[in-house]
Write a structure and sequence with these properties.
- With 211 residues, this protein is of the alpha+beta class.
- The chain folds into two domains: 30 residues; 178 residues, no CATH class.
- Helix content is 20%, strand content 34%.
- Strands 3-6-10-9-5-4-7 form a seven-stranded antiparallel beta sheet, with helices on one face.
- Strand 4 and strand 5 form a beta hairpin.
- The longest helix has 28 residues.
- 38% of the residues are buried.
Length: 211
Amino acid sequence: MLLFLGMKALRKKLLPLTLIGIAVTSLFSFQPAQAYTVTLEQVGANVVANGSGPINLTGLTFDGTASGGTTGITPNLGGIFTGPTSGLMADIYLGVSGPSNFGSGNATLASSGSGDLVGLFGTGGSLSVPAGYVSGNPLSDSMTFDNATIHSLGLRPGTYTWTWGTGTGIGNQFFTVQIVGPTTVPDGGSTVSLLGFALLGLAAFRRKLSC
């Protein structure tokens, strides 16, 4: 009888602690929307890039609106632009910090693409978003490189992250490129020829240098 009463009293004492534990666990299990991430991976005979997530523009400097660019990658300059391959209008922002490259490959145009225009130029520290983009809104896009491999594009597998703003690491002030594939790449000059196109980020970089 005493054992029963003791166990009953113990359960009463433990109940508030259990409820607190559940509340704390629920609080920490809540995950905010992941910041913008674009993943490049081999899909059959092609390389496909898929991007999604919101972008917080706080802390960046608006550098104007550009048109007439195209989508593709320039690994040796840290350039990646996903979305439609034509009819592009983008707002360009400066103030991004991070890797200056994610491989040795030169410029390669996307064979096709869709969704929102989103781009980053690591060497110039610029970020491109759809013209009129409202900070924090969700973004989604893709592009495909036909008859290509991670190896042939001169991409270096790994995760690359750029940040900006006074709240670095908070509030979707990230841009992440994830490259899935083999761990070795050839010299960029022997695998990918320069196609002679200017990405929107390159234009922003030149504008920045001329100031």
